[in-house]
Each structure stands twice: as C-alpha cells, then as structure tokens.
Amino acid sequence: MEKKQTIFLLVSFLMICLSPLYVSAQEENLSESDKEALLVLARKTLTQYLKDGNLLRIDEHRLSKNLLEKGACFVTLYKKGSGLRGCIGIFQRTDPLYRSVMGRAIAAALQDSRFPAVTYDELKDIKLDISVLTEPEKLEFISADDLLKKLRPLKDGVILKTRFGSSTFLPQVWEQLPDKEQFLYYLSAKHGAPGMIWKEEPDKIQVQVYQAIVFGEKEYGGSKGLK
Question: So what's the pLDDT on residue 23?
Fold first, then answer.
C-alpha cells in the first residue's frame, strides 16, 4: 500500500510540475481562432455545469469545420498555488472535437479520482489546458533496446499496455522525464505494473505513440488569449 501511494505521489508530482510546453502534431490543422474557441467553450461549459448542472447549448452553425470533425483530446486543469487539479482524456474519435472538449472538461473537474470534485467557487483560480491528439499508431519494436531507440522525447505521447492494464503520458511529460528508461518506468507504474516490465517482458507489451497540439488559457479564471 505504501509503495502504491509513493508511486501515485511521484506521478502526480510530475503532472503538477509540468511547465507549459507546446508540442505540435505532425499536421496541425487548428487555427488560432479554433484554439480560442475551444478554450472559451471549455470554460463556459465548466462554468454552467458547475453552477446549475446543465450542459451548454451549442449552435453548430457557428463552429468551424475543424471543430465539427471527430477528434480526441485531453483537458487539464491547474489551480493557482497548488498545480494540477484534474486531467482526463479520450482517444476514441466518436464525437466532434468540440463535444470531446466539453465532455473532458467536465470529467477533468469531477471524475479525476486523484482529487475531490472542483467546485464552482474554485473556477476563478483554475486555468485550462487542452491537448488535441492525433490518431495513436502502433510502435513496432523487437526488444527493449529497440523500443528505447524508437521513442521520440518531446514529440510523442506514449500509450503503454501490459498485462496489468494501460496508461499514457502526454508529450509534455518528457519535459520532466527526458530519460527514456525513467519515462517508461513511471508510465508502467502509473497503471500498477512493475516499473521495469517494459524491459523484462518486451514481447508481452504493446506501445502506441501519438502527437498533441497543446494550448491553454493565459490567465487563471478565464480565457484571455493563448499563452
């Protein structure tokens, strides 16, 4: 129990200490106005839902084509003075991007098991980041050393699947874990697997990589331009 708690604290520390980092996907289609629109939408969604439990009504005719296309994303919340306050994502491309952002914003505020639910009164001290994800691709490798060679720090987010489950680190996490072995150790531990399982059982794990377009609010309490 003590070991699991220590791992949880270490992983949480990594997320809390992430400095803003902008990692572009290989093909970035979102315009600056699209990013602004998503941030405003996420903020308004949280504000209304935490205030009265109602979902924001959206006129899709006012949204750009990019926001109407099916997309995957993570939404991360930071609180002034304490750091990470919630982070939830989805890789499935089942909904338009704008709906994925709305859903993940609410989930990050209310469903991240590491934290109590965000309250309406906290929103003035909350800042939002959005990571729009490319489609994950399977990374082929023949050994643990080969896996290490093929990982691209600061470029790829990584999904690791083992017999214990699966977990992911966004591309931004490389900023705090630039060493590939350490990166994989904590990624394994994140879903309860032994930290060296990627090295001890390379033939029994699966790895996928993806890129992210990362942008966020400039100030706590509301979107006032991209940071």
Answer: 41
The whole-number pLDDT of residue 222 equals: 83
pLDDT at 8: 45
Amino acid at 130: I
Q: Are residues 151 and 182 in the same domain?
A: yes
Beta strands in 134-226 (DSSP E): 137-138, 157-162, 165-169, 206-210, 212-219, 222-226
Instruction: Please tell me whether residue 99 adopts helix, strand or coil conformation.
Output: helix
Give the position of tokens 């941030």: 39
Q: Among 2-6, 50-54, 88-92, 136-140, where is mean pLDDT lowest?
A: 2-6
Backbone angles phi, psi at 83, to 5 degrees: 95, -140
Give me the amino acid identity at 3: K
Q: Say how far apart CA 27 and CA 63 lie, in whole Å.
A: 21
Identify the domain containing residue 173 by its residue range.
137-210
pTM exceeding 0.90: no
Q: What is the CA radius of gyration of the chain?
A: 18
Domain co-membership, 95 together with 202: no
CB 114 within 8 A of CB 82: no
**CATH, residue 180:** 3.30.1490.150
Domain match, 29 and 127 both: yes
CATH number of the domain where residue 30 is located? 3.30.700.20
